[in-house]
Design goal:
Elements (H helix, E strand, L loop, with lengths): L6 E7 L19 H10 L4 E8 L2 H7 L5 E4 L6 H11 L7 E4 L9 H9 L7 E7 L13 E4 L5 E5 L19 E10 H9 L4 H6 L4 H5 L4 E5 L11 H13 L1
Helix pairs in contact: 3-5
Length: 250
């Protein structure tokens, strides 16, 4: 699918956070953290609307000065469920493309969203993104989700384990190199609703990776590859301080 195809970006933004309370409202840069995500997403080609889906009026109030579209949702067990309600509140059509962007990744390049949309196509139900692991990232780290692609770019498997395993120790000369999955997804609203209604699956529960539900139920995920996916999510006050320093240094 063309990277310029029109789509709607929805940014789930829960107020609660265990390791960094109310992180989406942190505003040492002059704007809330989630607004940085909105600004990045709005710069992506084809993004006709960027909306924040939140569970708390305080988030809506904090974003009002920036003119950001905000929808208030109820309580949900996961981000996909919240996304479904938000798509309905926005009145999106069944075949409109919805992109799910994480509300705590302010450094994500717009090209990541474009790549997720471009990964959709005939017979592909979900588009997502991967990037090569950097030299400082440990492929054995279970917090880094890895993905293996087929020759046509479709996802074969996602895992917290080191895949593919470099059995012979070929290093950079190995035929396939590890790819880090970037948690951005693109789908039509119709498939989003279908996906959210699917029962959880054994591999999903074992790896604790919701995207495996798509594969286990026989649907296809296209994986676009980008050279840089930004600095990743902000989960701690220390990571936020590092972002503030980067922002002020620009």
């Amino acid at each position: 699918m063309s990277a310029g195809a029109p789509y709607v970006v929805i940014v789930p933004a829960r107020l609660g956070s265990t390791r960094f309370p109310e992180k989406v409202l942190a505003a040492r840069t002059g704007k809330p953290l989630v607004q940085h995500v909105v600004d990045r997403a709005a710069a992506a080609r084809g993004a006709r609307l960027v909306a924040v889906a939140t569970d708390h009026p305080r988030v809506a109030e904090a974003l009002r000065p920036f003119g950001t579209t905000v929808v208030l949702t109820g309580e949900h067990p996961n981000g996909t469920s919240r996304l479904c309600e938000a798509a309905g509140l926005l009145g999106l059509g069944a075949q409109e493309i919805v992109v799910n962007a994480q509300g705590d990744e302010p450094d994500m390049p717009p090209a990541v969203l474009e790549a997720a949309v471009a990964a959709l196509g005939p017979g592909v139900h979900v588009g997502t993104v991967a990037t090569p692991l950097s030299p400082t990232e440990d492929v054995r780290d279970p917090n880094i989700v890895k993905v293996v692609r087929a020759l046509d770019g479709g996802a074969v498997y996602f895992s917290r384990a080191p895949i593919p395993l470099d059995r012979d120790g070929a290093g950079p000369a190995a035929p396939a190199r590890p790819l880090r999955h970037v948690g951005v997804y693109a789908y039509t609203r119709a498939f989003l609703e279908r996906y959210s209604a699917l029962p959880a699956t054994p591999l999903e529960r074992t790896e604790v990776l919701e995207q495996l539900r798509v594969i286990e139920h026989g649907f296809r995920i296209g994986v676009g590859v980008v050279p840089d996916a930004g600095g990743g999510g902000i989960d701690t006050p220390e990571q936020y301080e590092a972002f503030v320093r980067r922002f002020n240094g620009r």
